[in-house]
Amino acid sequence: MAERLNADARPEKRLFISLLTRDISLVAAFLDLVDNSVNAAVEPVSDRLKTANGYQQVFDDATVQPSVNVYLKLAEASVEVRDNAGGISAATAEQHVFKFGRSAEDADTRDRLSVYGIGLKRAIFKLGRQITIRSDHVEGGFDLKLNVDRWAADTTQPWTFPITRRDPVPPEKCGTTIIVSDLNEEVSRRICDGLFVGQLREAISRTYAFYIAKFVTIYLGDQPVEPMIVDIGANRTSETLEIDGVSCAIAAGIGDPQGGAFRDRSSGWFIFCNGRTVISADKSPLTGWANPGTGLPIFQPKHRPFVGHVFFVSDDPEKLPWTTTKAGINEDSAIWQEAKRHMVVVGRSVISFLDGRYTDEGTEIASADLRQVAQERISVLSSAVSARRSFTPPPVAQSETMRIQYDAKVSDIRKIAQYLRRPGMGGAEVGRHTFLYFLRNEVGEK
Ligand SMILES: Nc1ncnc2c1ncn2[C@@H]1O[C@H](COP(=O)(O)OP(=O)(O)OP(=O)(O)O)[C@@H](O)[C@H]1O
Ligand SMILES: [Mg+2]
Description:
Elements: H1 13-19, H2 26-41, H3 52-60, E1 68-74, E2 78-83, H4 90-97, H5 119-127, E3 128-136, E4 142-147, H6 148-153, E5 163-165, E6 175-183, H7 185-191, H8 196-207, E7 216-220, E8 223-224, E9 232-233, E10 236-243, E11 246-254, E12 268-273, E13 276-282, E14 306-313, H9 334-357, H10 367-374, E15 377-378, H11 380-384, H12 410-419, H13 427-443
Parallel strand pairs: 1-7, 12-14
Antiparallel strand pairs: 1-2, 2-6, 3-4, 3-6, 4-5, 7-8, 9-15, 10-11, 11-14, 12-13
Residues 32, 35-36, 114, 119-120 line the site of magnesium ion.
């Protein structure tokens, strides 16, 4: 019998500290920290957020008011993310929070944006080498001070993070503060490059457009981030389907022109998972574009008025088709594949209308006439909970005139001009004259 051996399959700390962190952008790392704060902010109503209808009802419920603030402070030497949500108890910190990856017993049915059990750890390692976390909770929170290099060099098994208990506090004093200092060199460089903060603001405003104003106020520096919501016209095609415990609402219609024009950043497909924007303004093969055979055509400027929404909801967020960074779609997911087939059909109804209306070169699309076609604006949520319906293109207006064009011999045109004693007459004039002559003398029109 063959000799049985046990091959070494122990994880390396380096995998988590310097390898997995390569797969996530710096923006996405910050969003991972914000995700946890938002997830904690919605926890009090999370039992109502299980379906698209539930989301709509909570959004319409005036008694649900934003109660959590998230503050992000970025400087060359350190970054800080602080919230006043419910905090993390010492027991939860001890048993769940710092585990790399979630096990079945870590799962919490109240989570809507927390899925894989990696976000916080990957984000702090991406940022820097000195980590301080302080969390206050009604049952008593904790403090953590972690020197990443020292922890990396320590080979003790199993891996642990040193935490100390904090005393219980009343609910209004709860919250979590994460400070990372001794930033990785590329991180300080990006934070100070004059572009990054703007990119992060835009990403937050897109990603949490639903959550901002209803559940949380997110400050970047001293300025609150405004939500960027892309509404859709009520004249739309929509469809809802249920795929393996995930509800999916798809809608396509005409967007809302900003400043009189349809903008690139607000056109294309928008994909939401549990209310978090995962993909924005997509015009790539990911969402079916540039696949004229079985999908949609190559996106052209004339398609700019197109807006499509796909709203996935599940009370088991692991079933949603997002990647672990939540900035992308798991394209192989059966749920995504099924949704994509429906997106193509829903999207085509609007795209063929735009194709028929504008030439390929047309980049300037008059927004006023399309506004009538689009009808009043409605939110993504209202569209996600509506019954199935179809986009109605406006009746094609019949033109009263038609252009007549044909070639005639120059010598013949001259002959007619001379006959009429008007030698300077051009071809178009001769054409018009002879046409009217026939109309009057043969047809008998006055
Ligand atoms: N600001 C916070 N407020 C309350 N709880 C938090 C906060 N940050 C982290 N936690 C807790 O820590 C846990 C671990 O966070 P982490 O981001 O590593 O994984 P996750 O959110 O469970 O999954 P994902 O990989 O999808 O982010 C969370 O599930 C949550 O319970
Ligand atoms: Mg998380």
